[in-house]
Write a structure and sequence with these properties.
Layout lengths: L18 H17 L24 H19 L1
């Protein structure tokens, strides 16, 4: 099953993370979303805001994984 999900704008606000770090995390999130199976067929979410717990590790890969998980959870709720 192939689903097209279009992201027109993607922004991150993570206090204490450099601009370069935010870019790396954003690319990992995009990779994670594109690799995820089971995306909803249709999404009626013109804007999606996701958050992760504030006490999580500053590891970029872990932050990206948490953002992908939260995004997929919210996408499935809106489908």
């Amino acid at each position: 099953m192939v689903n097209d999900v279009r992201i027109d704008r993607f922004s991150l606000d993570i206090p204490g993370v450099s601009e370069a770090g935010l870019r790396r995390i954003a690319l990992m999130v995009v990779d994670g979303l594109s690799a995820a199976g089971g995306l909803p067929q249709a999404v009626a979410a013109p804007r999606l805001n996701v958050s992760v717990p504030s006490g999580v590790s500053r590891d970029e890969r872990e932050l990206a994984r948490l953002i992908v998980a939260a995004t997929l959870r919210d996408l499935n709720r809106t489908s």
